[in-house]
Amino acid sequence: MDPVTRLGVVGCGLMGSGIAEVAARGGLDVRVAEATPDALEAGRRRLTASLDRGVRRGKLSEEQRDECLARLSFTYDLGDLADRQFVIEAVAENRDIKTGVLQSLDKVLEDPAAILATNTSSFPVIDLAVATERPAQVIGMHFFNPVPVQQLVEVIPALTTSQDTVQRTRDLAAQLGKQAIQAPDRSGFVVNALLVPYLLSAVRMVESGAARPDDIDQGMELGCAHPMGPLHLLDLIGLDTAQAVAESMYEEFKEPLYAPPALLRRMVAAGHLGRKSGRGFFTYTG
Ligand code: 3HC
User: Are 91 and 117 in contact (CB under 8 A)?
Assistant: First the structure.
């Protein structure tokens, strides 16, 4: 099969804008869909700022940045994705929203062989696949934050996903310069199944007063050479996303270690979502 040249990305938040960026940098024609003008403008700004940062860091020339921008188009209308060969949804980690987006895309895509990938962090891919009329062409494609930096993509076939779809998704990951691993269709897949209990344990340490956020993070950075401690990482991921992932994993396994601690819930309720809101376990300016 020919390589994918026309990619759609739905959602231009932290993950969607990163996916669109690496795809444009990989030479693909990328069309990005968002639900509201404000969200689209914020996403476009984030994406442009990231490309500008790449220029400042000497990772791409001004000419290459401009070529990337020329390969990107934006829309509010999912109907504008009709000619896409492959669409990645990266909307909020909410089962109903993701299901609705995939069902709409399923109707809109002209090519019956086009693939629908979900960047869900935790929902079983099979539930999303069977909500469409093309369950053999629905697959999980889980990217990591920040997308331009993290090398990994988890490729998650559902029970219904065809081998062709798996291969095409692996090929696309390679086109984007990513390294794919195959992960099981269990909530949390491979990485979050290991990462989330660790992050939640750090929240419980703060909640119980056992240790201070700075000490916890320095412990893991200096003691275990992690690039950032668990609480800074939660702030980067977004506490609302982390809560949604933990809830989904708890729903699947009923293991107490996946249950979101009360402190996490309270912080989300207060709007302390991490970097994106300027405040989480730490505060951020600019
Ligand atoms: N976009 C593009 N490049 C970025 C970037 C971004 N948003 N953030 C950082 N970078 C690049 C910088 O340009 C720099 O590149 P260079 O060294 O080649 O010039 C490099 O990354 C290092 O950046 P900084 O010097 O600014 O900062 P740090 O050294 O502190 O690194 C970090 C920042 C890359 C975020 C690093 O701390 C890190 O890797 N942290 C761990 C992130 C992680 O674990 N992510 C996975 C989260 S889990 C997830 O996403 C799954 C979901 O389902 C929950």
Answer: no
- Ligand 1 atom nearest 148 alpha carbon: 2
CA of 76: how far to CAs of 12, 228, 253, 256, 261, in Å? 11, 36, 37, 40, 36
Q: Is the omega angle on the peptide bond into residue 146 within 30 degrees of 0, that is, cis?
A: yes
User: For the segment 175-233, what is each residue's pLDDT rounded down to a tens digit?
Assistant: 999 999 999 999 999 999 999 999 999 999 999 999 999 999 999 999 999 999 999 99
Query: For residue 149, how far is its CA from the centre of ligand 1 (angstroms)?
Result: 6
Active site residues: 121, 142, 154, 192
Pairing outcome for strands 152-157 and 138-143: antiparallel
Residues 6 or more apart in contact with residue 225 via CB below 8 angstroms: none
Cβ of 146 less than 6 Å from ligand 1 = yes
SS3 at position 76: coil
Question: pTM (2 decimals)?
Answer: 0.95
CA dihedral 171, 173, 175, 179 (to 10 degrees): -110
d(CA 77, ligand 1 centre) in Å: 31
Q: Residue 57 C-alpha to ligand 1 middle, in angstroms?
A: 13
Q: Locate 123 and state its tokens.
A: 């929902």
Structure tokens at 222: 């200096």
Answer yes or no: is the C-beta of 192 below 6 A from any ligand 1 atom.
yes
Determine the Cα–Cα distance for residues 109 and 107; give it in Å rounded to an integer: 6
